[in-house]
Amino acid sequence: MDPYAAQKSDKFSFGLWTVGNAGRDPFGEPVRAVQEPNYLVRKLAECGAYGVNLHDNDLVPFGASRTERDRIVREFKQTLKDTGMVVPMATTNLFTHPIFKDGAFSANDPKVRAFALQKTMASIDLGVELGAKIYVFWGGREGTEADACRDPRVAIQRTRAAMDFLCGYVKDQGYDLKFALEAKPNEPRSENYFPTTGHMLHFISTLQHHEMVGVNPEVAHEVMAGLSFVHTVAQAMEANKLFHIDLNGQKIGRYDQDLRFGSEDIKGSFLLVRLLEGTCGGKSYTGPKHFDAHAYRTEDESGVWDFAKGCMRTYKLLAARANAFDSDPEIKALIAEVKDAHLDPLLNASYSRASAQALKAAPIDATAVAKRGLGYERLDQLTIEHIMGARGL
Ligand code: GLT
Ligand code: MN
Ligand code: MN
């Protein structure tokens, strides 16, 4: 059996909008036929994915009647049952309809804010009905071009009010659902509020029900801003706030490319998988691994499935290499923590006048310490050799 073929136990998921992407861009028409959701789920199951995520309107068209909605949902549930697929995450489309042209929760018009809440409550009901345990908020249109249109502090306050309200709704309904907030620096707006995961993490700490809200960082969105995605994810994990993750590929400084996972920055992708899988130590990430990406516009439908299988296969290849890397005795020796019998107790002591005094008095020869080479060239070369399969497998 191919050890890199995706299994349901890997917990790989795709959004309906990812493998369903028809290749439309701001300059060109779709290049592929729009595929029907039930068909996409069956194909994803064949590829080895375990889950499918959706926006309300990826499944139920905007404005559908209750009868129509119920028929669509019934059929979709049957497909999930037939294929053994789950819906781990659901979200609301608060960006396509023109009513959201100036944002949803942060919009100046109360009618827009109220409509956004109505739509989200209905969409939460839908997600829960399909079994979702995570609910994503991506504020696609929450931002500005004419920045004087509102006090940015008010935008933050309105978003907080919306989150507090929606957390209240979930609790009142007795739903087993957590929220995951997804940041993006810009696009489609010129400036988005909450541009990075770091901004989101602080914002979450100000919410009434902060314990049920975490983050959904996306590779492309942090890399667009020139940030280290590995460090972003590490901060979220360390805060126990990594509720979900959007994996893909991206070049720095471009539009949101949403490329196949691992197709760009192979070293960064390796370090990310290493962190998520926990081969470097610490807690691993056990939630769904969602590929929020799409096939190149050059592709026909078979290219879409090559893309989907490629995301999952690359993840598994990198996981195997991360495992080999962290089992390599030379790597272990290179990254072993430096121990100092005299200083360690002083550094580990909590503050007191006495511990401060002892630390002040500790003799440290800065020149001698500075002379020591750290071996990071060797470490980094070995990292490359592991990634390239020249070592370890
Ligand atoms: C949209 C966006 C993604 C978000 C999705 C959830 S929709 O495709 O580009 O990053 O995760 O709303
Ligand atoms: Mn995303
Ligand atoms: Mn993206």
Q: What this model shows, in words?
A:
- This protein has 393 residues and is an alpha/beta fold.
- It folds into two domains: 320 residues, Divalent-metal-dependent TIM barrel enzymes (TIM Barrel), CATH 3.20.20; 59 residues, no CATH class.
- 47% of the residues lie in helices and 9% in strands.
- It is built from 16 helices and ten strands.
- The protein has an eight-stranded parallel β-sheet. It has a two-stranded antiparallel ribbon with strand order 5-7.
- It is globular, with a radius of gyration of 23 Å.
- The site of one manganese (II) ion has 6 residues, from helix 8.
Distance between the termini: 17 Å
* CATH class category label of the largest domain: Alpha Beta
What is the C-alpha radius of gyration, as a whole number of Å? 23 Å
Would you identify the regions where 5 or more consecutive residues have pLDDT less than 50? none
- CATH homologous superfamily of the largest domain, by name? Divalent-metal-dependent TIM barrel enzymes
List the helices and strands and how they pair.
Elements: E1 12-15, H1 16-19, H2 37-47, E2 51-55, H3 56-59, H4 66-83, E3 89-91, H5 110-129, E4 134-138, E5 143-144, H6 152-173, E6 178-182, E7 191-192, H7 197-205, E8 213-215, H8 219-224, H9 229-238, E9 245-247, H10 266-277, E10 289-291, H11 301-327, H12 329-335, H13 343-348, H14 353-361, H15 366-371, H16 376-387
Parallel strand pairs: 1-2, 1-10, 2-3, 3-4, 4-6, 6-8, 9-10
Antiparallel strand pairs: 5-7
Bound molecules: 5-thio-alpha-D-glucopyranose and manganese (II) ion (2 copies).
Structural features:
alpha/beta, eight-stranded parallel sheet, 393 residues, 2 domains, binds 5-thio-alpha-D-glucopyranose, single chain, 16 helices, binds manganese (II) ion, TIM Barrel
